[in-house]
Here is the input.
Amino acid sequence: MRLEAATTSRDPAHAEANEDAIVILPGRAYAVIDGVSDRTGARYDGELSGRHAARLVAGTLERLLPGPPPPAESIVPTLTATLHEAYLRHATLAAAQADWGARLCCTLALALHDGPRLHLVLVGDSGIRLNGREVLQATKDLDRITATLRSHAWHAVADPDPMLRDRIARQVAWHGTAQHPAPHGLDLAAIAAAAEAECIAALPHVPRADIAHLLSRGIVGAQGDYQNNPHSILGYGCLDGFAVPRTLLRIATLDTRTVETLELFTDGYFRPGATPGLAAWEQAHAEVEAEDPAKVGRWRSTKGSTPQRWADDRSYILVAP
Here is the structure.
């Protein structure tokens, strides 16, 4: 068996801030987990919410999966119960029910061996690549909208200082164009109009009201309306201690004999490696960073890299039976 794995903090100076987690149980299960960036600053057992969520989920998988393989359909409800119990333990259930920003949130990509079968469970935008070709990963039009907003804000900042541009653009994406006063004296109405026009053209299937809502309220004020919401075209799945609709999960079962290589990754990798293996994925990461470090061009994102840190944590596992 060939096994390669790594998890890297977006801040090289603070590995303890890494909100990703990985699980490796050789011959049993493999998982990458991406904690959603904290929005309130609240700490759980000394950890920010995204990191705490990822480690709770990882710990539950490590306890659960060494035994007989559970039904794949039971994994997400079990992990949901773990996060729900954490709210009860920390007396934060009411806050989490009232405000999605107060929730423990993370994504999951899991591969579970079950004799001749391999079960894949995906929640959110962490992904799996099979045999170096087929990528299973949810794409979020919602993120495309807020990334477009961030890009327009970044280009509107006249100061060339990359740290300042990143901070101001992130503030606009975070809090939207309805915030007052406008950061750095930006013309938020003009930014909103340009971003809205681009999103309407690029996403004709998304209701204009949803685009306007996200641009106006930003990630903090609007994204929670779509989390685990199966009734919106922008709805997406997330482990947050509350029910995840089946339509927002992906569960697949494969014959293990058809799997030559299995790769699991978080969305800190903006492009897959040319071939299976950590070195190829790190090469792809380096090329993306060289081309668009701020993540406001070809590789637009809701977060960008600066000279001090990467845009996001990144994690990767390769298994070649």
Notes: The chain has two domains: 2-138+237-292+305-320, 142-225.
